[in-house]
Design goal:
With 94 residues, this protein is mainly alpha-helical. The protein has one domain. The protein contains three helices and no strands. The longest helix is centred in the last third of the chain and has 40 residues. The two termini are 20 Å apart.
C-alpha cells in the first residue's frame, strides 16, 4: 500500500473517530447550542447585507477551524506513523 492510500485511510478513520467523539461530548453539544442561540439572536437583530456578511463570516471562520483541526490531526497521525517506522528501524524520521 502506498503513502497516498494510507493517508486516505487515515483521513477516513480520523473523520469517523472525531464524529463519534464529538457526538458523545457534552461540552461540545453545549458549545454548539450556545453558538446557535447567539446566532439566532443576531439574526433577529440584523437584516439585509449585515446579516448576509455575518453569516458569510461565520462560515469562513468555521471552515478555517475545520481545516486547521483536520490538518493538525492528520499531521499527527503521519508523525506517529513515521515515528513507529523509525522505532522499527525501517527508515529515519524526515
Amino acid at each position: 500500500m502506498n503513502n497516498k492510500e494510507i493517508e486516505k485511510q487515515m483521513e477516513t478513520a480520523m473523520m469517523d473517530r472525531i464524529t463519534e467523539i464529538l457526538a458523545k461530548n457534552e461540552e461540545y453539544s453545549q458549545s454548539i447550542a450556545e453558538e446557535e442561540r447567539l446566532f439566532d439572536w443576531l439574526k433577529e437583530k440584523l437584516e439585509g447585507e449585515s446579516l448576509k456578511k455575518l453569516d458569510e463570516y461565520f462560515h469562513a471562520v468555521n471552515n478555517t477551524a475545520y481545516y486547521i483541526e483536520k490538518l493538525s490531526y492528520l499531521q499527527g497521525m503521519k508523525d506517529l506513523r513515521a515515528f513507529c517506522k523509525y522505532l522499527d528501524g525501517k527508515e529515519d524520521i524526515k
